[in-house]
Design a protein that fits this description.
Strand content: under 5%
CATH class of the largest domain: Mainly Alpha
Number of helices: 11
Largest sheet: 3 strands, antiparallel
Shape: elongated
Radius of gyration: 20 Å
CATH superfamily of the largest domain: Intergrase catalytic core
CATH topology of the largest domain: hpI Integrase, Chain A
Structural class: mainly alpha
């Protein structure tokens, strides 16, 4: 968009142009802010290390309020089941990704950045061993977790492993050794989803839905947090290894039966 040029040649107007381009691609404001934070840090380092006599054009870019984030809604259960049924009918890589998210509540980037070996189907409790990788960090320390596979997520994980080719990545379309293209995936997935869900629902809405579904079966809040990788308040929750997989699975089975 802006070209590979000398750092000193970029203007604040071009930084704003890049911001608008990111938003036009479907990125949320928080995501765009993270992109700009990385760019600012890289440029600041280059200026300091090379002794450049220029300012950072990306330093003071304005960002509007993220109205999209504030209006996100959970996907109604009937629509969720319809989407899961469609995923099984279409039965391709994109739909496997959607199906895994739908019954795990995982973030899009968490799933898109998986290795095939992160999917543990042969363990006593089939699960995903979610951990950071060089191409995909995790949002918080608590995001590192093990998530039992049930329902549509278990089906999709089996299809993934049955259909894998030479790649070590679960979703090579969206991930390689350098990058996890979660933002690129988001645009295509949301375009497909919008045909079947209410206006304010997006791929991240499955994460809102999983919390509501677990509440509906009276799942204890700390187990909900363990499944979703949300932070649980209280000093004691930082001790030990957390809940066994079979305990987490017991509650997840209740929302898929």
């Amino acid at each position: 968009l802006l070209g590979d040029r000398a750092i000193s040649s970029y203007s604040s107007a071009e930084a704003a142009q890049f911001r608008d381009w990111c938003i036009s691609k479907g990125m949320g404001i928080k995501t765009v802010k993270r992109v700009f934070a990385s760019i600012r840090a890289i440029i600041n380092l280059a200026i300091a290390e090379e002794g450049l006599d220029c300012s950072n054009a990306f330093a003071k870019t304005y960002f509007p309020d993220d109205l999209k984030t504030s209006s996100r809604q959970p996907i109604p259960y009937g629509d969720l089941k319809k989407i899961q049924s469609l995923c099984k009918e279409v039965d391709d890589e994109m739909r496997w990704l959607v199906a895994i998210i739908s019954d795990t509540g995982m973030r899009l980037g968490e799933v898109a950045g998986l290795l095939l070996e992160d999917i543990k189907l042969n363990d006593t409790v089939p699960h995903i061993d979610l951990k950071p990788h060089p191409w995909r960090k995790l949002k918080t320390r608590g995001s590192k977790r093990r998530i039992p596979l049930v329902g549509a997520a278990l089906w999709a994980s089996k299809r993934l492993l049955e259909s894998s080719d030479e790649s070590v990545f679960a979703f090579p379309r969206y991930c390689d050794e350098r990058y996890c293209k979660a933002n690129s995936a988001s645009g295509g997935l949301n375009k497909w989803l919008h045909q079947y869900v209410p206006k304010n629902c997006v791929i991240h809405s499955f994460r809102h839905s999983i919390r509501d579904r677990l509440r509906a079966v009276e799942c204890p809040s700390d187990i909900v947090d363990a499944i979703g990788g949300w932070k649980t308040s209280g000093v004691g929750h930082g001790y030990g290894d957390g809940y066994p997989l079979d305990v987490l699975k017991k509650w997840m089975i209740r929302i898929t039966d």
